[in-house]
């Protein structure tokens, strides 16, 4: 019995020391992310594909939204629907940038969510002839983590 307990403990330690364990915190993977306010318009557009990580899903669900700009800045968004899916996404501005969160129901009482910070340094404001508009110019693919 002592040997069995030691073997199990050893296996648990080996798994927790595995560098791939950080990947297990990834809930979704985002591809082709774009966000930007449209010059000569009051609208901004968010667009990206999202797949659930580690479950074999290969065809991204598309999430696209036009939303009213916040004075030329990318706006906050709450529970915007993704196409043909129960997934939704939200964007919230904070001091460090925008936080993108994707959520998917797993039961009537709970959701699985993953988030990623779009760093303020990747948000660029361009001066257009009659307005200043903000866009995201950072990585277009990234994980959403718990």
Query: Biggest β-sheet, characterized?
Result: 4 strands, antiparallel
The CATH class designation is Mainly Beta
User: What's the architecture, going by CATH?
Assistant: Beta Barrel
Low-confidence stretches: 1-21
- Total discrete domains: 1
Major sheet: order of its strands? 3-2-1-10
Task: Give the termini distance in whole angstroms.
Answer: 37 Å
Strand share of the residues? over 45%
The average pLDDT value, as a whole number, equals: 88
Radius of gyration: 19 Å
What's the helix-strand series? Answer: HEEEEEEEEEE
- Helix count, DSSP H or I runs of 4 or more residues: 1
Percent of residues in helices: 10-25%
CATH topology call: AOC barrel-like
Short description:
The protein has 146 residues and is mainly β.
Keywords, separated by commas or semicolons:
146 residues; mainly beta; AOC barrel-like; 1 helix; 54% strand; elongated; disordered N terminus
List the helices and strands and how they pair.
Layout: H1 2-16, E1 26-37, E2 43-52, E3 61-68, E4 77-81, E5 88-94, E6 97-107, E7 110-119, E8 123-128, E9 131-136, E10 142-145
Antiparallel strand pairs: 1-2, 1-10, 2-3, 4-5, 5-6, 6-7, 8-9
Signal peptide: 1-17
Organism: Ophiostoma piceae (strain UAMH 11346)
Keywords: Signal
Give a written overview of the molecule.
This is 22kda glycoprotein. Residues 1-17 form the signal peptide. Keywords: Signal. The chain contains one helix and ten strands, in the order αββββββββββ. A four-stranded antiparallel β-sheet has the order 3-2-1-10, with no helix packed on it. It has a single domain (25-145), classed as AOC barrel-like (Beta Barrel), CATH 2.40.350. It has one helix at residues 2-16; strands spanning 26-37, 43-52, 61-68, 77-81, 88-94, 97-107, 110-119, 123-128, 131-136, 142-145. Helices cover 10% and strands 54% of the residues. With 146 residues, it is mainly beta. Strand 1 and strand 2 (43-52) form a beta hairpin.
